[in-house]
Design a protein that fits this description.
single chain, 7-stranded mixed beta sheet, 11% strand, 5-stranded parallel beta sheet, alpha/beta, 18 strands
Length: 627
């Protein structure tokens, strides 16, 4: 495709462009191998195989493979197993992580990321095998919190391009650009514009790191084939003055597009990727609040063509929070149907905060009968506090997304609250069952706030310090348990260690991480063939996560499962999404399983169906003759 002139590419219709791309990309077929249990064509020999991270297996190539593929003499003579390779890598990692730092600013987690990234560059199968077998240790390295450090330092860490970059300078070119990506099938795209990376603000093109990290978890947790994932950065400029002045910055050094110009760039991207890959699922990630809701509404409802997409910050965070909130009700020894009685103070009115409140109020309303009275009752259970204090209907220029939850004058009088009341005041007066932080303000749940929570109307008040990365958490579990004692329920977005409370008692630190849900939502949507991701499918995912823990665990204050179970959790969540898609008559089937056959599957058969379609990191067969 590189030889086609820009004008010619512009003149070609998508169908003709696709046929031309296929014609130009044909080679003599040399070897047939297996990719995710299906045969694919291998066009490489010798050094080209060793330099391809998908096919390279290094010293694990058998002698027969070395002879047939032109590798004899290019590797040390000893043939080792894949497990021996992993053992050697883990030994090296333990030793090297102490010495791989690039100066004092390079933390040990960032050094670990760099070592893992080098493995990813040379041997993709082994990389994912290491990640899956050590997911509890390495999820915080490839995802939050270390991915925040990676994004902040991405220009300096960039070695090998991963994913695709679309920019405002590519307007009019995106339909042809998508054919530069080598995969004929893409199942999952994670896209960001870099405008609100975690709680770190506008990082511009550096935000590609979050898309790469998310897709690593789609592979490790959901078994999405790594050859069918695509991280995407849409560069529309940056308003980060430091990056605009940085001579080493890799992105466009101009201020961000706004208004219709911005929307037209995203529109063109969506049309391009869905033209080439009609069945792809697109996850929007870390878009600033003002665009997160608007784009979600636009591509789910408002445009003539709806897309298979969701926003993890709005919907994924909400689902994980709902699962935790339902778990907190169970931990209080009450049935989940009591959830509508919970009083919840929310710190943060961004896309994540409002997304959680919207989803939680819908859950409450459904439990109360799903009518107008139910929605009004649910609305009244939330108090939202932002940087300017309590949001009420007296607020000037109130954000439209927050308006439905603004406290009304009639409610404020008997509570002794007013517009702009501080978080401490609100907690003292409301005596909430839950304080939920999505503010990105580290330490916001101060000693005063936690002391005020002692007067909660609940016997087991819950603290959700959900902001990422770790430094942005509203409080630590140590701070919460020190003040509230063993009865407190604690959850956070980033990982913390459990707290030793003495006398053999443990204060459990639950990580309410989005990775519990988004891999299962993506996998379930893929395997159901649903053309849209409905609120019901998202709700089914959250409820399955909420019910995953057994009663004994929940009563101990464990409301989220350990990350070590992520593969099983994702399987269960994906099966729940598939069954909900079938129930809503949205399922269209996947590969050889059509919608009617999906509908006939029992719950156990659905789980087995999901399991058999999850990719595992096994070296692909390159020849069909044994030694």
């Amino acid at each position: 495709m590189a030889s086609i002139s820009r004008n010619l590419r512009r003149s070609l219709a998508p169908d003709r462009l696709r046929r031309l791309h296929l014609l130009l990309s044909q080679h003599p077929r040399e070897y047939v191998t297996a990719e995710c249990h299906r045969p694919v064509v291998l066009h490489k020999r010798g050094p080209d195989i060793l330099h391809d991270p998908w096919f390279n297996r290094g010293t694990a190539f058998s002698m027969t493979e070395r002879d047939r593929l032109g590798l004899r003499g290019l590797l040390p003579p000893n043939v080792v197993s894949s497990q021996q390779q992993i053992d050697r890598f883990m030994l090296d990692l333990t030793r090297l992580q102490k010495y791989a730092r690039d100066g004092p600013s390079d933390t040990y987690p960032l050094a670990k990321w760099r070592i893992l990234n080098r493995l990813h560059d040379r041997n993709e199968t082994m990389y994912y095998k290491v990640l899956m077998e050590n997911i509890e240790e390495y999820a915080p390295i490839v995802y939050t919190p270390t991915v925040g450090l990676v994004c902040q330092n991405y220009s300096g860490l960039f070695r090998r391009p991963r994913g695709m970059y679309f920019s405002s300078e590519d307007r009019g070119e995106m339909m042809s650009m998508v054919y530069n990506w080598p995969a004929d099938q893409v199942d999952m795209i994670v896209v960001t514009d870099g405008s609100r990376i975690l709680g770190l603000g506008d990082l511009g093109v550096h935000g590609i790191g979050i898309a790469i990290g998310k897709l690593d978890l789609y592979v490790a947790a959901a078994g999405i084939n790594p050859q069918r994932v695509l991280p995407v950065m849409i560069d529309v400029g940056t308003n980060n003055e430091k990056l605009l002045k940085d001579p080493l910055y890799l992105g466009l050094q101009e201020h961000r597009l706004e208004g219709d110009e911005y929307v037209s760039v995203i529109d063109e991207f969506m049309e391009a990727v869905f033209t080439r890959w009609p069945n792809v699922i697109v996850q929007f990630e870390d878009f600033q609040t003002k665009w997160a809701f608007r784009l979600l509404q636009r591509y789910r409802c408002d445009t003539p063509k709806t897309y298979r997409m969701f926003n993890d910050d709005v919907q994924g965070t909400a689902g994980v929070a709902i699962a935790g909130l339902l778990g907190a009700v169970r931990a209080q020894g009450r049935p989940m149907i009591d959830f509508p009685k919970q009083k919840i103070v929310v710190a943060g009115a961004g896309s994540a905060g409002i997304g959680v409140v919207n989803a939680a109020s819908r859950t409450m309303a459904r439990m109360l009968g799903n009518n107008e009275v139910a929605f009004e009752s649910a609305r009244s259970q939330f108090w939202i506090v932002d940087a300017h204090g309590l949001i009420t209907e007296d607020r000037a220029d109130i954000d439209p997304d927050a308006r439905p939850f603004a406290r009304r004058k009639a409610e404020l009088g008997h509570q002794g609250l007013s517009e702009g009341a501080s978080l401490v005041e609100v907690v003292k007066k409301v005596k909430p069952d839950v304080v939920l932080g999505l503010s990105a303000v580290g330490g916001l749940f101060s000693k005063e706030v936690l002391e005020a929570l002692k007067d909660s109307s609940s016997s087991r008040p819950a603290i959700f310090a959900m902001s990422n990365p770790t430094k942005n958490a509203e409080c630590t579990p140590g701070e919460a348990f020190e003040i509230l004692g063993e009865k407190a329920i604690f959850a956070s977005g980033s990982p913390f260690h459990d707290v030793d409370l003495g006398d053999g008692k443990i204060g459990h630190s639950n990580q309410g991480n989005n990775m519990y849900l988004f891999p299962g939502i993506g996998l379930g949507t893929l395997l159901s063939g649903a053309r849209v991701i409905s609120d019901g499918m998202l709700q089914a995912a959250a409820e399955r996560l909420a019910s995953y823990m057994n009663e004994e665990e929940v009563l101990q204050g464990i409301i989220y499962p350990p990350i070590s179970r992520i593969r099983d959790i994702t399987k269960e969540v994906a099966a729940a999404v598939v069954r909900e898609a079938v129930a809503e008559e949205l399922a269209e089937g996947y590969r050889d399983m059509d919608a009617r056959e999906l509908a006939r599957l029992s719950e156990e058969e659905t789980i087995e169906y999901v399991k058999t379609n999850m990719w595992s990191p096994v070296y692909p067969t390159m020849i069909y003759k044994t030694d």
